[in-house]
User: Fold these one by one.
Assistant:
Number 1:
Amino acid sequence: MADISIGQRIALTGGKDFWHTNEAEGVTSIMVADGPHGLRAQPPERADNLGIGGSMPATCFPPAVGLASTWDPDIIQEVGEALADEALAQGVSVILGPGINIKRDPRCGRNFEYFSEDPFLTGKLACALVDGIQSGGVGACVKHFAANNQETDRMRRDSQVDERTLREIYLRPFETVIKRAKPWTIMCSYNVLNGTLVSQNRWLLTEVLRGQWHYDGVVMSDWGAVRDRVAAMKAGLDLEMPANQAHLDDALAAWQAGQLDFDVIRRASDRVLALVDKANRSSKGADFDQATHHELARRAAGEAIVLLKNDDDLLPLKPDCDYCVIGEFARTPRYQGAGSSLVAATKVDNALDALAEFGAVPFASGGDEAVELASRHDIAVVFLGLGEAEESEGYDRKSLDIPADQLKLLDRILKVNEKVVVVVSNGAAVTLPFAGKVPAIVEGWLLGQGGGWAIAQVLMGNINPSGKLAETIPLRLEDAPSFPFFPGDASGVRYGEGLFVGYRGYDARRQPVAFPFGHGLSYTTFSLKDVGISCDDAGVHVQLRVTNTGDRRGRQVIQVYLSMPDSKVVRVPKELKGFASVALESGESELVNINIPREELGYWAQPAGRFVIESGSYEIHVGISSRDLVFSEKIQISGDEPRCKFSMLSTIREVLAAPGGREAFGPIVEAAFGGDGYNRGEDNMMADVPIGALAGLASLNRDQIARLVETLN
Ligand code: GLC
């Protein structure tokens, strides 16, 4: 729109109020709203200052911690489609989600709103949610870009991350979603990244996002993340939210003073115009079907539940079994996290009422009554978990413990009854000190408004649990790779564990864990057979036959991990690079194909400054958990590493190993070291000495050695 005034262009780069973009001549404003797992739309008359209360009723689907535990892109896409329906019904054009920050440390208060400790799983599942949302004509907003992995001091703290770790772990999910799902918008985070405030971080918002990933959507700020509007706009931040008239005035004054180019203003405002144009193509106002969405919320919750332990097939409860239920979470479920993602749910199921559908359920909330009840019944189903105040946006946990009073109650119950099923409600990993003392544990995470019903169906066997851990459950907080470095201090938070986040770190230190990444049991059994692996220019292809060898329908998640034990660079022991969710009737069998695209095989190489595939021998592992791998095979992969140039700094080992190197350099090395076998290129005291250091030692001078080095190149 060439005829729009500079003042209006600048206005378009800011909000009109808490939830709307500005309007201009011929340009409507559009509404944005949280997200990510349910609409939190505040009509103007109900908007409060912090924008937290008074939102319209909406379906509260499982938060990302639950959706991720499904490992099922299909159902996540369905949730996205339903979210779009509800957004349109409430006149919302952009949903502020999904949150795709990596769960670096289990203490992060907002982990319930994020998917996983693994970038590949996060990227795949987030694409499904974005695809679902945007297929409905509503924009998504992937957040919080980037390295916003804690709540402590989140608006100031400097995330200090080396580039390889940043690229392979913390930026990777954003890169995946930007390139594959093309979200309409992306939200920049509050924090500082390697010394520069993210909302003014040109390297991130322009060089990487635009120059390397070719993103053409809108970069909006997190709410209140902008400190200097002019610097932010120059760095690549298009839209500041919420409204901040003083900042718009700053931008106009800077333009008038010749300190802010018209092209920068036009670039930002044109992107906002394109967003508004896209948003206005969707018709708004049609109502949504609450009952249908509630059924979807239940179905998603049912796939999210992770059966961690089930000794002697104690679960599912037999219809006529004599059991009781203990714990307030059974009656008053905790089904979502606190903060900006809080949804006013259209209805909320609780497990106790859902269990009562199967017959009367003796219940006690806690205390001596609960212990006495447990002593009078064959099985005690005990609901434990974290309360609303224990984990939230805005602050981090200090420990991974379930509250002591709950653990004490469980201990007293175990003294009178050993047949205990523990059901846990929590937004992020908690330590399970009782894991060796109870026969069955159900990880219920936070499951949204349908979670209480779903838990009851799993306990009674109407749903066969199929969830898998998207984050490791450690034995102790101190075992977490990030433990010493989190949450840092005023000088910043150093990501000292580097690549070794989550299972990457536990595996590297061969650390025992309570339950590993990818773990989850079923009421049926599966066989994985006839595994075949091939490799071509497109990538690595895994094929196998999965059979449901048990007596009931079930779903299994087949996982594929990649290792490179002899790599020339530092590597984590294994990385998830593929998975498939397979639902099978009893006795049914399916040929499953899992393809690892070639671009997933690289590591971030400096100084090449790109993902490089290293030539050599890799191991492909296939299994049903990161620590339950039933098949491994070595394959050769030809890489695309830049041709290695030899120099005077190349070591004796390197030049002797190069084609023609032994002929050229063998005699020199022998002459230099008196023929003691140092020229065999094996491990020895001199192997890592740079060849240039031989000048003077041997009969050759530097120029002659340099000329020999060049012959290798
Ligand atoms: C917040 C959150 C962000 C949310 C926004 C609007 O502080 O960090 O995720 O979308 O404000 O509520």
Note: Residues 34, 51, 96, 143, 222-223, 340 surround alpha-D-glucopyranose (CB under 6 Å).
Number 2:
Amino acid sequence: MNQYEKAFPPGFLWAGALAANQCEGAWREGGKGVSVADVVPLGKFGISRAEAEAALAGNTPDSQYPKRFGIDFYHTYREDIRLLAGTGMNGLRTSIAWTRIFPTGLEDTPNEEGLRFYDDMIDAMRENGMEPIMTISHYEMPLNLATEHGGWASRKTLECFMRFAEAVLCRYKDKVRYWIDINQINYAISDGYSSLGIFDEDHENPAQAHFQGLHHQLVAGAMVRRLAKEINPDMQMGCMCGDATAYPATCKPEDVLATLQENQLYWYTSDVQMLGYYPRYMARYFAENGICVKMEANDETLLRQFPADFHSFSYYVTRILRALQPEEKAPRMLEGLMNGEQNPYLEASEWGWPIDPIGLRVALNLFYDRYRKPIMITENGLGTRDVPEADGSIHDIGHIQYLRAHIEQMKEAIGDGVELIGYCPWGPIDIVSASTSQMSKRYGFIYVDLDDEGKGTGKRSLKDSYHWYRQVVGSNGEQL
Ligand code: BG6
């Protein structure tokens, strides 16, 4: 029997997580094509076909599309990575913008300038003692694949994605050990546009299109893992879901059952990626909701042969749910994640996201019990409106309290026996928000002087949490 031990293991990855579309900016430089993120205006995440096409037509100023400028990381990454390294962080997660490598997704050969950019960025991470953790797709597919080719609902997008994945796996095979195929893959259940490049209004049954798109992404993940094992068997290939585990609002059995079913729906992608097959509860869900996922002959064999090496998830919130009333219409999936009720036992962030550190311990245990493979927390954090004092200092106590409470629970989960290998607080340097495109929703240890319209000096300043994280990393999680 294993010894009971409640400490972070040696070599634990104390990292941070970014995404290209939220930090790089330079949306038209280096041969980059237009991505789905580049046409999302301030305040939105999903947009309609008409909105995407109007934005592309270019009648509105760039300042209304914050993901076009980000924090200009494309130009500042060297200095930003050096600053981040000052916390002692030994890992950094970011994504490779698909459109820097294949501007429209359709090219036969990759854009060398884009590949060189990530060569340099990854080298900068290594020079600063950081293990790169690269996400291949993080809400930034070529817009053209969405507007002209049906997004992931079409098998063509899978083929284009594999050209991109092959280019980056081959190029960075000796530099990058940890890979995530697709960011928060399961949230595509309720998000058509940013996750799948699908415009719901193009489909009579959007749920059908989402699940078909998800199937193509799941198969792509297995193909990526097969390829990675051929290129360099040492690569560690992770999958990733967003965790927003639901609790039943009451102990009424109907509420408990409905909550289990909702959780299963959001766990099914990980079940496929970690266990290698579609769980049976999805066969029932598809049958009862009139969904027919088209598979090709080899798809299920691929899924079975190439499960992920480790599981990873983002963790921000938990939800509470109760059974649908007879007059409410299932499926509930397209309503999105935040429609559950507020948990009366939890406080919420300024953006209404419930804060639940113990829920992280629950999630870690749930996933470890389910898969028995190492876990990395690839995102976690609190969005706050940080305001510098007159002397320039930034006392972001909210970040410290939030992260401290979550790290304490991670340690408890390690004590429970969970094999936790890494932790990536979200946005260690302030970046543009994914869901609202606000710059003012800040997670960072480093403050970036830019507002929601990209106005400001861009100057970087260290917040109190920066010094606190250095102490956490330096003590391997002992001094919180
Ligand atoms: C995750 C995404 O859902 O949450 C990130 O993978 C995102 O891209 C993060 O930034 C935090 O969400 P937001 O909307 O506050 O930026």
Note: The first strand starts at residue 13 and ends at 14.
